[in-house]
Amino acid sequence: MNGVNEPSRRPSRAEQRRGTETRILEAARRSFAELGYERTTIRAVAAAAGVNGGLVMHYFGSKEELFSRAAKLAPDEVAAGTPDEVAGALLELLRKRLVDEPVASLAVLRSMLTHADAAEDFRAAAVRRLEQLTAVIPGTDAELRASVLNAIINGVLVERYLLRLGRLADASPDEIVDLLRPCFQSLTGRDQAM
Amino acid sequence: MNGVNEPSRRPSRAEQRRGTETRILEAARRSFAELGYERTTIRAVAAAAGVNGGLVMHYFGSKEELFSRAAKLAPDEVAAGTPDEVAGALLELLRKRLVDEPVASLAVLRSMLTHADAAEDFRAAAVRRLEQLTAVIPGTDAELRASVLNAIINGVLVERYLLRLGRLADASPDEIVDLLRPCFQSLTGRDQAM
DNA sequence: AGTTTCGGTCAACGCACGTATAATGAACGG
DNA sequence: CCGTTCATTATACGTGCGTTGACCGAAACT
């Protein structure tokens, strides 16, 4: 009667656990991204994941720990090259984020703004990313340029996904990236005295 | 014994009231800017203003209302002109914000990200500002350009004052503005087919 | 003067949250 | 088949918050 291809075996305890754990993490990510750290409640996350609130505590120990686990994201590297290449790489990075709307990085971003303490780890990660970006930009003010580039990327993401303001909220990634290319090329030091 | 020029008259009730009210509003602005909407507590604001918590309620009725009153800010107009002039005007606007670190606009910005409901009014204001900016930018994609410009301004402010990340946190306004000039000129449509 | 108005304090309520702990029942290992 | 483990639930505790209403005392008014 039931599907033949189905294993139909009841999931093992380990599978079960992994399953609910990721369901909780996904729900948490969504909530942190949409509501920020403070307004995200453990009970609501649990409900969205279809489990009891106590379980979230049992698995993650505390809200802060849940946040850390939910908002972990792979560091994005940007290779060295000519200014235009660096600009291109950064724009590709931005495009990727615009295309798949990375819930995790939104969770970090929004939560860094709502509860800096909770996002202390991510400050460190952001600083590292800045340093790395600085290293591939020429000029004496590379540090500032990197910082501004970072600010623009975050600004665009914030306005599109968090504030949902203006055309940036619905424009195609390609339009946005194309519009920003001259900006990025200027900031990565295209007309810099080497 | 006391200063001769001092009126030394005890302040009238109306003066008294206005005084404490503005003290409360200032304290609220600072708190909203630094902590965001959620983490700002009425009691803390009251304490910072040197009054009792109940009084804040008495004067403003609710936390939301306090926020609305505290975060009111004058709309900033940007005059029409050539693309380079518009860019210049926008940069001046940014410079002003970088120089006097406008607590009010930070309060709005941070709170729009922490509690969108509370900042509904300010969304409307932001939309109006965007429309106005769109009107002075040439080209068919003026709307998107305006939105991106707005995103950059907010991104820079967020990174400098809210995240305090990288060199943007301590660089001089002039440096920042100079660095962004080419960006803004490109976005205001300097090389646009009219 | 007496009375009203009103800036301001104080103590309390109700609620929602993070968290802790005990209990349940099914999977697991022998 | 029995004891253990462990995923999961139910319940309760403590706290801090927004909000309320009663109260006090001095200014304002007549």
List the topology elements.
The structure is a homodimer of 194-residue chains.
Chain A: H1 13-39, H2 42-49, H3 53-60, H4 63-70, H5 83-100, H6 103-114, H7 120-135, H8 142-162, H9 173-187
Helix pairs in contact in A: 1-2, 1-4, 1-6, 2-3, 5-9, 7-8
The structure holds a DNA duplex (30 and 30 nucleotides).
What does this 3D model show about the protein?
- 2 copies of one chain form a homodimer.
- By secondary structure, the first copy, chain A, is an all-alpha fold.
- Chain A has 2 domains: 13-70, Arc Repressor Mutant, subunit A (Orthogonal Bundle); 83-187, no CATH class.
- Helix content of chain A is 69%, strand content 0%.
- Chain A has 9 helices and no strands.
- Chain A has helices at residues 13-39, 42-49, 53-60, 63-70, 83-100, 103-114, 120-135, 142-162, 173-187.
- Chain A is elongated, with a radius of gyration of 20 Å.
- The termini of chain A are far apart.
- The A-B interface holds A 36, 38-39, 110, 112-115, 123, 126-127, 130, 141, 143-148, 150-156, 158-160, 162-163, 165-169, 171, 175-176, 179-180, 182-183, 186-187 and B 36, 38-39, 110, 112-115, 123, 126-127, 130, 141, 143-148, 150-156, 158-160, 162-163, 165-169, 171, 175-176, 179-180, 182-183, 186-187.
Which keywords apply here?
homodimer, 194 residues, mainly alpha, Arc Repressor Mutant, subunit A, 9 helices, 0% strand, DNA-binding
Relative strand content of chain A: under 5%
Count of helical regions of chain A: 9
Mean pLDDT of chain A: 90
Task: Give the oligomer, counting copies of the same chain as homo and different chains as hetero.
Answer: homodimer
Helix-residue proportion of chain A: 55-70%
